Predict the structure.
Amino acid sequence: MNVQFDQTGTTVGLEELVKQILEQENTASIFLLAGDGNKFTPETVDSILKKIQVPIFGGIFPEIIYKNDNFNQGTLGIGFPVAPQNMAVIPNLSNPRARYEEIIYQTIPTAFESNTMMVFVDGLSKQIHSFLRGLFSVFGLEFNYMGGGAGSLSFEQKPCLFTNDGLIQDSALLVMFNIGSGVGVNHGWTSIKGPFQVTQANQNIIKTLNNRPAFTVYKEIVETHSGKIFDTENFFELAKFYPFGINKQRARKIVRDPLMLGANNSLICIGEVPSKSYVDILTGNEESLINAARQAKNIAEFEFNSISSSKITLLMDCISRVLFLEDKFSNEIEAVSDLNSTTVGALTIGEIANTGRDYLEFYSKTAVVGILGA
């Protein structure tokens, strides 16, 4: 695979990057990852994307990963020597009335032999979980899935997914390949208290825990454990150390990041928290998070099902892990890197994965490591 990186993050740099990838005779498709600091818009890049004669896919993320560093500004291009067997855009990812299972059945033919599906969504869409449930209902465990939520840390929804028709928003992009792949998922957070029943919730808003205002319960546990006091100025600075973990039968906890206070002492999270589910309050440290990423990489290597010498290590990692680890985040990238492949990836607004063995999930504060060989 041919990896090119433009650190300028300009449209001129994007054009040159694409040109260099297409100069390789075996380029059959292009995977694009761009930092939000590029400030790409449909007006500035659509004319470039529409001229590309091979399939293109990817997104704009809060930051991107290249080798042992992360960048708010810059563009990564990976030339694949194979084309996707199928690509599909699922629009209107915030429509609460959409029947995604039916839409996916109507959009994607089932008669093909892909084993790897890359899934990118607008991370600020409101029906991601409904969409993923529909996707899994259609395809089940047929694929290794990997991907994540594109978008901006400004939390302003805007076009953020790359297609041959230009930048799009409020959509999902499905890219199906018949290539070697392995996927590992891990987070490194451990429980300090729980479980608590989510007695009232609305999508990503936890209203009550054990029939008490959610923040009241959360505040008691976090302040006692941390020895620090919440106030309106430092909510996320303290909350980033204490995510929720949704309990799943016979599976690891699904992490949810409390982002801010809502009305009536509710808590607004990244990702849906189902009503009547049970959650623990979690915490972690630098060592536990970095070790978890290393374990995810080891799982991906074990699951990798190809002898291909041309491969990349794809790290889809939550942007909040960078906010937690700060200058130690380079150690997490190093923990998943391999001398035999180039490490690329993105810092996402939610991560998407399963390993061909577990239910497809939209994660938060989690490291997803994929190894792709073609």
Remarks:
- DSSP finds nine helices and 25 strands in the chain.
- The CA atoms of residues 218 and 224 lie 10 Å apart.
- The chain has a mean pLDDT of 93.
- The first strand starts at residue 2 and ends at 6.
